[in-house]
Otoraplin (Triplophysa rosa), 132 residues
Amino acid sequence: MDKSSGLFFFLICFVCLCQTANAVFMEKLANKKICADKDCSYVISMAKALDDYIASDCRHINLRRGHLIYVYSKLKPVEGAGVFWSGSVYGDHYVDQMGVIGYFPSNYVNETHIFQKKTVEIPTTDIDFLCV
């Protein structure tokens, strides 16, 4: 590795370490979640926001009435807890929010299309509730 490649590699590593230093583990919202696959990488369904929702912390995403949302997982609530789903806003008008995955209350959306009827239930991890 030449000198410039080594410096570039060092800078990339330094930037990555600095970004993870600001991450905070938040309280778990549930111990289990329902996903389309064991990695929660496939979309379960599409939903449409019924009302505006302002994220309460960095684990959540903001929704505006009419937003289309890809749903990736559905948390299985602990008795008495709210029901949250995780997803990402979809649409050409919302490019600034596309790709950002976060939680939102399921009662703020209407599930409009089911992509995956067969789902798996898996345990949540601390990483599921990491705030970056």
